[in-house]
Amino acid sequence: MKEGWNPQKKSFLQHYGSEALDASLLLMPLGKFVGPTDPRWLSTLDRIQADLVYDNLVDRYEVGLAADDGFSSREGSFSLCSFWLVECLTRAGRLGEARFALEKMFSYANHLGLYAEEIGASGEALGNFPRAFTHLALISAAVHLDRALA
Q1: Which residue has the higher pLDDT, 85 or 3?
Q2: What is the mean pLDDT of residues 104-132?
Q3: Strand partners, 58
Q4: Which residue segments constitute the domains of the chain, with CATH numbers given?
Q5: pTM score of the predicted model
Q6: What is the dihedral of CA 66, 70, 74, 76, to 10 degrees?
Q7: How far apart are CA 141 and CA 139, in angstroms?
């Protein structure tokens, strides 16, 4: 909690001493490491939305700031992380945003409702297909949002 928090960025970061955000931070409230309405978490969530999210799609990390992962080209957004975002918004009580993000993600499924690992800049499916972890995150996000809306 002390080493992973950056008071200047008002956010938790990818690793100790890092300046980069990483979508894996979305697991913090999902794994109950931090409360979903903890002020530091909400600030991190806002920072993730500002810096890693476009059109409700979540990039894994900030290119150029993140630890080197061995990939030389830019990746697509990660469907798994986009569903984590939906669940984090739900748990934070931001139900309108969560519902919109989930409905937007529905538009990226194929005709069978399946998702690829990544979504490219023009909406194309990239990476492993179908991706089981992505579908588990979809189910979890949908169940939590449904319960919160009920």
Answers
A1: 85
A2: 89
A3: 53
A4: 5-149 (1.50.10.10)
A5: 0.90
A6: -90
A7: 6
